[in-house]
Design a protein that fits this description.
The complex is a heterodimer of chains A (about 120) and B (about 120). Chain A is about 0% helix and about 55% strand. Chain A contains no helices and 12 strands. Chain A has strands spanning about 5, 10-15, 20, 25, 30-40, 45-50, 60, 65-70, 75-80, 90-95, 105, 110-115. In chain A, the strands form 3 sheets. In chain A, strands 2, 5, 6, 10, 11 and 12 form a 6-stranded mixed β-sheet that branches. The relative contact order of chain A is 0.34. The model of chain A has no long low-confidence stretch (mean pLDDT about 90). Chain B has no helices and 11 strands. In chain B, the strands form 2 sheets. In chain B, strands 2, 4, 5, 6, 9, 10 and 11 form a 7-stranded mixed β-sheet that branches. Chain B has a 4-stranded antiparallel β-sheet with strand order 1-3-8-7, with no helix packed on it. Classes of the chains: A mainly beta (about 120), B mainly beta (about 120). At the A-B interface, strand 5, strand 6 and strand 11 of A face strand 5, strand 9 and strand 10 of B.
Chain lengths: ~120, ~120
């Protein structure tokens, strides 16, 4: 079964604090892809990152960083020095190589950054 | 402008009405999707059109009817909806390739309210 769990429903932080959004996944596929999307109040989901299951190297992009650990089936997302513009709902998603058309999304984490 | 355009942005309809949601992608992708986003639930995949084949979620009621006249356009025809169908309907597109899964590009969604 394919499943993505985002246990944190809502998080509030004060501007400039660091925040980590958790994502835990389940899959039987040996080749799979993990994604993070951001959904601002305007509604569209914005692609942030794609990671394949063979690449466990952590990635940093500006204030964003991702920690992929196959041993714990986690793909956590950290925002450093948060800003008000980071306020959004963030979704983690999984797609197996054998189910290329099927994305499995978590329920999302709503992040509010307080000025 | 995200490359995937959805119209209308907002729609209020009575339970006896018939309406259609429209999605257009300008990215040359070969797959398009309809997702339903309800409050505090994972995004629900409704329909997939990949290489002009339709894959659907069998739990989607027949009052939702998709149409994909070509690889750039996708419609969702609605009739005799129920209040619980009120949600954000998101269209997405992607490029599907052998052995690879690419991220989706989402539209801004149509906020549907059934009264």
């Amino acid at each position: 079964a394919q499943k993505v769990t985002q246990a944190q429903t809502e998080i509030s932080v004060v501007e400039k604090e660091d925040v980590t959004l958790d994502c835990v996944y389940e899959t039987r596929d040996t080749t799979y892809y993990l994604f993070w999307y951001k959904q601002p109040p305007s509604g569209e989901l914005v692609f942030l990152i794609r990671r394949n299951s063979f690449d466990e190297q952590n990635e940093i992009s500006g204030r964003y960083s991702w920690n992929f650990q196959k041993s714990t089936s986690s793909f956590n997302f950290t925002i450093t020095a948060s800003q008000v513009v980071d306020s959004a709902v963030y979704f983690c998603a999984l797609s197996g190589a054998n189910t290329g058309n099927q994305f499995y999304f978590g329920t999302g984490t709503s992040l509010t950054v307080i000025p | 402008e995200t490359g995937v355009t959805q119209t209308p942005r907002h729609l209020v309809m009575g339970m006896t009405n018939k309406k259609s949601l429209k999605c257009e992608q300008h990215l040359g992708h070969n797959a398009m999707y309809w997702y339903k986003q309800s409050a505090k639930k994972p995004l629900e995949l409704m329909f997939v059109y990949s290489l002009e084949e339709r894959v659907e979620n069998n739990s989607v009621p027949s009052r939702f009817s998709p149409e994909c006249p070509n690889s750039s356009h996708l419609f969702l025809h609605l009739h005799t909806l129920q209040p619980e169908d009120s949600a954000l309907y998101l269209c997405a597109s992607s490029q599907q390739g052998t052995g690879k899964t690419y991220g989706y590009t989402f539209g801004s969604g149509t906020r549907l309210t059934v009264v």
